[in-house]
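tool_call: predict_structure(chain=1)
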Amino acid sequence: MTRSCAAVAAFLALLCAAPAFPEQSPSPGDAPIPPIRLNRVFREVALKRPVQVVSRADRPGVLYVVEQRGRIVEIDASGDSPKSRTVADFPSSTVNAKFNEQGLLSLAFDPRVAENRTAYLWFTAGKSDGKPERNVLASVRLAEDGTFELGSLRPLVEIEDPAWNHNGGTALFGPDGMLYVSIGDGGSGNDPWGHGQDMGTLLGKIIRIDVSRDEGGRGYAIPADNPFVGREGARPEIWASGLRNVWRMSFDRKTGELWAGDVGQNAFEEIDLIVKGGNYGWRPREGLHGTPGVPDRADSKGTFIDPIAEYPHRDGVSVTGGFVCRDPGSPELGGVYIYADYEFGTFWGLRASAGTLAAGPAVILKRPRFFPASFGEGTDGTLYVCGTERSHDGPGAIYAIVPASGSSDPAAKDAAKPAGK
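tool_result:
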């Protein structure tokens, strides 16, 4: 999540089509986007720089909180009172969190985790064993007691990181069982290496791999239907390109559509619907706009896909991509994609129909001095947001997202929806 230009790099201190999925059922274009409220949950759990909230299908009522410095906290709210414990704490020799946008950035549980006890991590690693600083996608085994076996860490993808920033950040499984990962453009500012449009690198891309099979001893296989398989000069792992630094993406659990928040450079933040083989224009474009001084060569051929929404930097400077709400307990928010700006604490909602904007974006909450680092979804559809209070390095907090029109008693709501009902 993040800025790269010098004017705003110091501003942030945190991190800073889909494959033949069914079409989304249309929503009325004039349906209002309701405001939301954040209800604090798990107050008793002390967190430091939480950057992701993750659930696993085989353990309803359990959430996992990823901390940037390398810790993973399990919160079990399936009983009468929540219980928390540390299930992983990676040393700095493994997870390099020296700078604002580095660290342990994402966790994804294998869809068959109950059988194979495997999860996947996306993190930054420092120089070691003759290797440079790099982005790493690795598998890790879980012990029978649910803790992570740190010694089982196996790198699957390692990408040399030319700068400290723009490390992307989301690893997640799609409805097709494939693992998707968002990877930043390599950092610095204005993509000086041209990675966004270079199909020979994984930087500035979203990749899609099959971790259920091992080809060539690398720990994964290339899905045969990936869009660039067999194309000369293109990495076959690539699913979509032309992305600057996707900070959080998610699948709509109803439609299978892949949503992404792509952090902008100097002027615009954008929300994209990611499709197979899509090129989203970075660096010739930032949002819907041409980048000054960069030839818009590809756009003249109609090859760039427009964002579904954008906002200028007078309204925020670092987008945090969110989720489409499918919480049965919040029908007013059904089908609303909720996202936020990390620095301003502003939350928006929008609805899309068949890949086009149907309603919004509308501001649904302003929460200054809360820095929303990431959204999460419980197994039942409950939406959460995690971040820090008061400052970038302030105390960590997790909130459940509910309609503002609900009960006016936050304590009652907290008790009613602790962690995925």
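agent: The chain has one domain: 6-416. Proceeding to next step.
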